[in-house]
């Protein structure tokens, strides 16, 4: 099995502490060995990024754009080699790995190649000011200018390792920052190959670095390093809070995209056709990467008049899904990332059963070996206070909760610690728009679970701090500087 190396300062960097195994979630076989970072490895990477920052931050935006465009081209060109590895380490169904893992990463670099040349200066109207003991009076001109933050530590999630890293690194690099990436321990191998691709595209040495580790030590060292100016993190709320506490001691800038417990509110005015669309939208929790996505509509809140019809529709949807080998093109539901995550999902389902909820379908482990499989599970008659209705499960589990009034639906939807992505399904778009305004959520989909790539993405409450996406991603990886001069 291949032993991978860190990517630091434009070259492979062998770890002083050895390697750890990376396992294919479908076969339970080791597919490669990732390097185990020490604090010294992290320090070397940060120092390389710090040195490279001086030149990269002064590189002309058009030159940065050209490099990012070439990265997008090369990601597409190397897809034949990268997709099989990415699929094997994530356990994603091949249809997801081939269409939404690597291609989306390339799209993000292409988007921020354009972003590198977006205007970074906001001119402000001249103002007359009176003389003071500080300075003589006169007419002052001014501008607000976005400047790079510096060295950005990017700590990414396991569900979409390359896409998530691209969503951080691309806008950070476009703005003139340098990057030290720390991928999730479960599936870092493809991320470790990106350095050579970026180098081939013309990215200077030290501008992009990757270190990995099997536990929390590498990430903790990156967050605590005084040479890092900003931490961009995607992952669980508990880890995000620990990162924020550590980063706060050095006043590091942070961007936190944390957990979610999406509510899909189905109102009583849906037609049968629209109701089927809503069922399909909620069913994406099962059919898209086995529910391992923070924006999934994992809670379906249904008006009591439609409740049993929707539950029956969801049951039929779930039971029609093919579970199995993710390499098989007929497979819709592949494995979870690890045995630990499968056990966690099963524990939530067992807890709901013990509390009196109705397991409509699923709830038992599929008879598939090897692999970390969990069946698409629908739990009905859930009370809002149950753990399955409050906590992020990150697996193929949907809970159904009835409501009688819009006020009750809003109270239930807002009644968790999260606020990342909610949905409203209604036959009246104006009604849905008014309801969306009452939801404490950073994103609301009306009659769709589709994402708009230019919208600001992030959460309320425990779902995070800050926004990325589109031009807002450029804002996230920059500082505003005010410049004033006499006219």
Automatic annotation (TrEMBL):
What Pfam families does the record tag this protein with? Aldedh
- Top-level taxon in the UniProt lineage: Bacteria
Give every Aldehyde dehydrogenase domain span: 17-483
What does the UniProt keyword field contain? Oxidoreductase
Gene3D superfamilies, A to Z: Aldehyde Dehydrogenase, Chain A, domain 1, Aldehyde Dehydrogenase, Chain A, domain 2
The keyword Oxidoreductase is annotated on this UniProt entry: yes
What is the designated name of this protein? Aldehyde dehydrogenase family protein
The organism of origin for this protein: Streptantibioticus ferralitis
């Amino acid at each position: 099995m291949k032993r991978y190396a860190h990517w630091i300062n434009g070259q492979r960097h062998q770890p002083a502490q050895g390697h750890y195994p990376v396992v294919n979630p479908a076969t339970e076989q080791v597919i490669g060995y990732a390097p185990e970072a020490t604090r010294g490895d992290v320090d070397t990477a940060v120092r390389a990024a710090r040195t490279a920052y001086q030149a990269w931050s002064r590189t002309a935006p058009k030159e940065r754009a050209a490099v990012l465009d070439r990265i997008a081209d090369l990601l597409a060109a190397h897809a034949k080699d990268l997709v099989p590895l990415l699929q094997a380490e994530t356990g994603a169904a091949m249809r997801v790995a081939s269409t939404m893992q690597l291609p989306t990463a390339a799209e993000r670099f292409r988007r921020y190649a354009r972003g590198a040349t977006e205007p970074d200066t906001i001119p402000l109207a001249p103002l007359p000011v009176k003389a003071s003991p500080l300075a003589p009076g006169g007419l002052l001109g001014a501008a607000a200018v976005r400047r790079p933050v510096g060295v950005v530590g990017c700590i990414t999630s396991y569900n979409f390792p390359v896409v998530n890293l691209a969503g951080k690194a691309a806008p950070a690099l476009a703005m003139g920052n340098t990057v030290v990436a720390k991928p999730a321990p479960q599936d870092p191998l493809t991320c470790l190959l990106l350095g050579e691709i970026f180098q081939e595209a013309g990215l200077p040495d030290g501008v992009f670095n990757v270190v990995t580790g099997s536990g929390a030590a590498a990430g903790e060292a990156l967050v605590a390093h005084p040479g890092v100016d900003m931490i961009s993190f995607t992952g669980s709320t508990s880890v995000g809070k620990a990162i924020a506490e550590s980063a706060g001691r050095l006043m590091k800038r942070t961007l936190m995209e944390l957990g979610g417990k999406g509510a899909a509110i189905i109102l009583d005015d849906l037609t049968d056709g629209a109701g089927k669309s809503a069922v399909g939208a909620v069913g994406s929790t099962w059919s898209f990467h086995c529910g391992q996505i923070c924006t999934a509509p994992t809670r379906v809140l249904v008006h009591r008049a439609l409740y049993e019809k929707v539950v029956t529709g969801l049951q039929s949807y779930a039971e029609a899904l093919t579970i199995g080998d993710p390499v098989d093109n007929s497979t819709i539901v592949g494995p979870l990332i690890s045995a630990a995550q499968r056990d966690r999902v099963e524990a939530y389902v067992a807890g709901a059963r013990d509390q009196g909820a109705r397991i409509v379908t699923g709830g038992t482990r599929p008879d598939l070996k090897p692999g970390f499989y969990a069946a698409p599970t629908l739990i009905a008659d859930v009370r809002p206070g149950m753990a399955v209705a409050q906590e992020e499960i990150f697996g193929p589990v949907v809970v159904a909760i009835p409501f009688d009034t819009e006020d009750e639906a809003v109270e239930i939807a807002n009644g968790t610690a999260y606020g990342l992505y909610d949905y409203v399904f209604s036959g009246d778009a104006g009604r849905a728009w008014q309801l969306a305004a009452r939801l404490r959520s950073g994103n609301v989909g009306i009659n769709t679970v589709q994402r708009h790539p230019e919208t600001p993405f992030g959460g309320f409450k425990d779902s995070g701090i800050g926004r990325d996406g589109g031009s807002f991603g450029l804002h996230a990886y920059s500082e505003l500087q005010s410049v004033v001069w006499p006219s």
